Every structure is written in C-alpha cells, then in structure tokens.
Amino acid sequence: MKMKPLKIGSFSIKYPIFQGGMGVGVSWDQLASHVSLEGGLGIISGVGTGYYKNRAYIHKEIDNRPYEAKNFYCADSLKEIFKNARKVCGDRALGCNVLYASNNYGQIVKDACEAGADAIITGAGLPTNMPEFTKDFPNVALIPIVSSAKALKIICKRWTKRYNRLPDAVIVEGPLSGGHQGFSYEQCFMEEFQLENLIAPVKEEIKKWGDFPLIAAGGIWDHEDIKKMLSLGADGVQMGTRFIATFECDAHQNFKDILLNAKKEDIELLKSPVGYPARGVRTNLIDIVDKREGPAIKCISNCVAPCQRGKEAKEVGYCIADRLSDAAMGDKEFGLFFTGSNGYKIKEIISVKELMSKLVNGEDC
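User: That's the sequence. What structure does it adopt?
Assistant: Structure tokens below.
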C-alpha cells in the first residue's frame, strides 16, 4: 500500500503520519523537527516548556520548579524550541499540542502561533473556543482531539455558530494511547469505545459538516496498524509511544530505558490529578504513591485547571507537573513515565529516519 500525501488546511505532508505531542520534554525541537523532515507532521508539546534547556528562559522559579503557569508554559522557551526545530526541518509543517486543561490555554495557543506553529492540536477537554485565540493567524490549522462523534458534533456546532469555522482535521483517539484518556476507567475496556469502533461514527459526523481529514490515534504501532486504520476510513494516523524509541526523541535516556525494560504487565491505567485515567509504567513512584508515601505536593507550577491548585493532586497522591518533569529529566525514582499500551514492544532505539521508513514501507524495509 502506497501512502498518499495528506492536505490539512493550507499545508500538506508527504505521509499521513502525525507524531503525537508528548510532554513534558518528550517531543520538543529535536523529535518534532526530524519527523517533519522525514515527511510526517512533527508536533511540539506545549506542556512544561519552562523546563527547556534546564529552565534557561523562565523568569521565576521555586525549588528548581517553574513558578506559576506563565513560567511552566513559558512563551520564550516555546519560541526557542520552534526556532531550533526550524534549523532542522526548515519550512516543513510543524504542529504544537496545547492541552485544553492547561491554565492559560488561550495564551499558550497565541504563543504557539507567534512561535511559528502551522497547526494547533488540542485535547484534554472540548476546545469549544479554540478559534477565538487564532483570529490573527488564519492560516494556522486547528485540529481538536475527540473520543466520540458526539464530541465532534459539539465542537462543529459551536465553532460554526460562533466563528464560522470548522476543524481543519480531527484526531479521534482510542483508549490504548499513552497519557490521559478521554474515557472513564471502565470505558477504556469496553468494546464500543475501542478505536476501530470509533472511526466510522466520527467519519459520518464529519460528512454532516463538510470534508476534513480524520486522524486515528491510540495503540497504533506499525505499518500493518496504519494500513488497518486507513482501511477503516481514517485519512491518517497519530503515533506517540513509538517515537519515544528514537535517538532524536527529546526525552532523557533513562526515560527510554524505562520503556526498553518494561513488561506488558508493567503498563497500567493510573489515577491522575486531571480527573481521567492515564496510561503509564508502574515504577517506584506508583508504588510509593499507593502507600501514600510519595514526594511532597507543593503546586508550584499551577499547571492544569482540573487539579484546582493542588487539591486533586493531594487526593491522588502526586503533582503531575513535578512528576512528569522529573521523568523528562531522567529521575527514575520520582518520575512519572507515560506510555501507550504497546510501550513494552520497544526493544531498540533507532533513528527517526529509519522508523519513518519502517512505518511507510513495512518493518523489513
């Protein structure tokens, strides 16, 4: 099967493959730029950019943590990330993932547009006012992440009425993805919510509004999986975990080693201060959190609105901003290591170039 180029808004990519945005510090300038260079859509994570280059661009910190959301989501860092990414991929399309649950969501979207993003990708909530923040950047593609046709209907209805705008593409994400899920714990295991059963209804909903690409995400691992998703009606795929196992991935080597050594039974759905289950690796952190012996929760960065300034963190037993940043910096003791359900399949680290070739042509290319 030959993969065709994919047009999204005002730009096209050679191969219909998105590299999922992974934060803190997993998909920044190096990973995203090399994916775009090789013909996919590299997506820079807008989460925790204050930690870029060891917090070099933030204006205030406490205990080596970016202070408040404006430093955790640091505009100067994000601009530097895009500038360095452009040195690798030139004018090829680059996206930025901005969580809707983020404190300062609208400002982060504006910062990403000013930094040079060609697309904004948003999940972790229904971004019903997303176009409001990109009015000055009409050529930036808007790509929401949904978990159902109903969610897409709400977005299209609100965007059409308020902004006379439709998504430039939509990502439908099933419950095998890494990190936060758009489903309850129980729904993650129900057949009707599995990715292959979500594509057709979302495709039907798209037809009611116009014609824009559907990108399938969650648990996609190889060339055969991509072929399957395209045969079910998807126009492209988004993959996150597989790209962690590359030399160019911005994550610390210890992060990659955690996945290299993970067994299938080590990957679990975990409780999160965001209010939804999140998939990651059971490590020392999860063991001590289960015993209510985890590290102190101080809520220095004030990262996501659902946490209510550390209230939910204290309920769950850990601060997600601190623990994700620890993972990014290679702290195996206190880091929180997100992965999709297939993370245990990682057996080696290869280049983005080789991985893209495998994904496009098959494993034995």
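The chain has two domains: 14-251+349-361, 256-328.
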